[in-house]
Amino acid sequence: MEIPKLIMHSVQAKIGLTTTPASLKMEQPQADLEIKQPQADMEMSVTPGKLTIDQTQAWEELDRKHIFKRIEEASQKGRQDVMDGIARTAEEGAELMRIENGANPIASQAKRNAALHKIQLGENYAPSFSRVKVQYTPSQLEINVTPHKPVIQAEPHKPVVEYMPGDVKVDMLQYPDLKIEVEYPKE
């Protein structure tokens, strides 16, 4: 026994796609911007430097003294000379009281008082630099700065967006087809 044959012929479908791409345009306008920077407040104060030079001792070594200093020294020397004179007179009186001891106090006192005493003159022509007193106080600078924050005004703009959607068109280029044939065996 023979079985009939089935013969199938098929044609597949063909689809055609036509696409239009989407388009997107975006623009961002710049913001309106205004910036102001106020100047800082600045205050400066200066304490001036001070230079003090005291050359009194150097001038005194050159014997160029102030009149008050000379008067004070003369009064001290006069006081000392008076005290020395009193001591010398008391000593000479004590010598005269002991005249009986056989000495010749009058002659020895006369000889002693007649002797020349060397007088030393103050001849100082160059005082040392250490006698000049120099004192310096440096100046001081004080600066106070008060900064101010900037004033910023900004007005943003919205972005400009243009969008066109895409499109897809579907076309049937070939329809499907199926043919079935039955073939019987020949007898």
What is the overall pLDDT average? Answer: 86
Residue share in β-strands: 35-45%
Unreliable segments (pLDDT under 50, ≥5 consecutive)?
Answer: none
Can you list the strand order of the major beta sheet?
Answer: 1-12
Overall number of domains: 3
Count of helical regions: 3
Q: Portion of residues in helices?
A: 25-40%
User: How is the biggest beta sheet arranged?
Assistant: 2 strands, antiparallel
Structural class, by secondary structure, is alpha+beta
Radius of gyration: 66 Å
The shape is: rod-shaped
Layout of SSEs?
Layout: E1 5-11, E2 14-20, E3 23-27, E4 32-36, E5 41-47, E6 50-54, H1 56-61, H2 67-97, H3 105-114, E7 133-137, E8 140-146, E9 151-155, E10 160-164, E11 167-174, E12 177-183
Antiparallel strand pairs: 1-12, 2-11, 3-10, 4-9, 5-8, 6-7
